[in-house]
Amino acid sequence: MSEITLDGLEKRYGDELAVEDVSVTIDDGELLCLLGPSGSGKSTTLRMLAGLETPTDGRIHIDETDVTDRPAYERTTATVFQDWALFPHKTVLENVAFGLKMQGVEKDERRDRAREMLERVRMTAHADDDPMNLSGGQKQRVALARALAVNPDVLLLDEPLSNLDKRLSEDMQIELREIHAELEETFVHVTHDQDEAFTLADRIGIMADGNLVQVGKPDEVYENPKNRFIEGFLGDTNFVDGEVERTTGDSVHVETELGRTIVLPTGRPEALSAGDAVTLSVRPEVLSIESAESDASSEQRGQPVRTDGSTTNAVVGTVENVLYRGSTVRYSVAVDGTSVFVERTVSDSGAFDAGDEIRIDWDGADVLAFRDDGSRVDL
């Protein structure tokens, strides 16, 4: 068993509070990604878990054993670092076997174990090579093999893919996922890359300003963000400022900077009142676009309409620029002086050009609302 419990974890460097009151339970065999921008406290949290930093406050338990004050070598963890930290004076095989040597494992046994790990990461052919002559991806595999060779209960990964190019990083993400599924051990993976976290994680813990803001499955944190920071950090979105115009029994009407009233369906009309300032989030994937010329009734442009109980909103704007991104195309659209972006696959793009007038439609049920303090409005 390798369940991890962090309880009220805090780390100060003088007057600087790097990690504040982090509490979470990581299940046995789970792969948890700590995701956040630089300086959010995710690597410091991992280093405290590894025994490389001492918490200022709080406790760390692994398998119900309090390891808070134990040094790294007395914990059943192994760490893969961002810079790989390979020994230049040892061969690849000797690097992988090093931890086993420190554990007092006999020479033949540690060489066999090291070769087994190299085979697992597809590096057997490089066993006798100088690690400094390897590519970045190969070095990463050796570092991973070295960490796995000591058979840790918990594997800690501190931005291990950040020095790799995009294609190689994506390949390594798949390999890491497969290795985790094979070993069924507890992994804690730190990254600032959202795609990496969504590919790897059973659950994602999002950190900001030293705090663990939200923990959940990838689809949960994306579809149900706790606050505006998370909504803006995970993927791209259009934030539109507005003010509540009125509420009814089943809808909220928000006058927005788009020059249009946006209608949101609600089961809790009491959640907002007329005059409340709100910021709406409209993700590009929920928007549909068509030529404005196909809209037969120009008088209705921008007016919300009811269709089968849903609230459809529409605005008309002018394409400012078109950005091709290989398989996708992004349109930046000017709507009443505010820029809105829409993304489509190339095959569904509609081939609009700068200067074209287009209509943008979306369902109000796909819009999230946030208060001035960043908290989400539960509609």
TrEMBL record:
Recorded GO MF terms: ABC-type tungstate transporter activity; ATP binding; ATP hydrolysis activity
Known EC number: 7.3.2.6
Highest rank taxon of the organism: Archaea
GO terms for cellular component: ATP-binding cassette (ABC) transporter complex
Compartments reported by the entry: Cell membrane
Residue ranges with Low complexity bias: 290-299
Start and end residues of each ABC transporter domain: 4-234
InterPro entries (UniProt xref): AAA+_ATPase, ABC_SmlMolc_Importer, ABC_transporter-like_ATP-bd, ABC_transporter-like_CS, Mo/tungstate-bd_C_term_dom, P-loop_NTPase, Transp-assoc_OB_typ2
Bilayer topology: Peripheral membrane protein
Keywords: ATP-binding, Molybdenum, Nucleotide-binding, Transport
Pfam family membership, one: TOBE_2
Catalytic reactions on record: tungstate(in) + ATP + H2O = tungstate(out) + ADP + phosphate + H(+)
Disordered as annotated region, ranges: 290-311
Record's function text: Part of the ABC transporter complex WtpABC involved in molybdate/tungstate import. Responsible for energy coupling to the transport system.
Complex and partners: The complex is composed of two ATP-binding proteins (WtpC), two transmembrane proteins (WtpB) and a solute-binding protein (WtpA).
Protein name: Molybdate/tungstate import ATP-binding protein WtpC
